[in-house]
Amino acid sequence: MDKRVIGALSLLALLVTGVAAIPAQAQGSAALAPQVNRDGGVTVKVTPLPIEPGSWRFEVVLDTHSVDLIQNIVETAVLIDDEGMEHKPSAWEGDPPGGHHRKGVLKFEGIPKAIVIRLEIRQVGIPKRRFTWPLPK
Q1: What distance in Å separates the CA atoms of residue 94 and residue 115, rounded to the nearest whole number?
Q2: Domain extents for the chain?
Q3: Which residues contact 74 (CB under 8 A, 6 or more apart)?
Q4: Which is it for the CA torsion 79, 81, 87, 93, positive or negative?
Q5: For the whole model, what pTM was predicted?
Q6: 60-77 b/e with 16+ CB inside 10 Å = b?
Q7: What does the pLDDT read at residue 16?
Q8: Distance (Å, rounded) from C-alpha 18 to C-alpha 28?
């Protein structure tokens, strides 16, 4: 086969693969933008990760220069569904308590379908931080 034909077929394969991947990526994190709260001397940035059926995952970054971040995030975070019910996280995969900078992924399992998701992180510099995202239909 001619080198130009092979090159064109390779490029076509890359384009098809890339185009096929766009909807799956756009469906999750691109539709739900990161949110930041800077109250109480602690900056908390929360980024929803791509949605999986019945499961929610959030990247959480905490930064401060005034207090130690000793909170157990699994105990201080809740996801609130459309009915107002609170759901505790199933796991925190990230930095352990302590220090001034922490990062990890907060996971929730078995969450019902929702129109809006609300994440609350409590007792991190202030009594309550609320992050809310309307979900695309």
Answers
A1: 28
A2: 1-30, 33-134
A3: 88, 89, 91, 92, 106
A4: negative
A5: 0.75
A6: bbbebeeeebebebeeeb
A7: 37
A8: 16
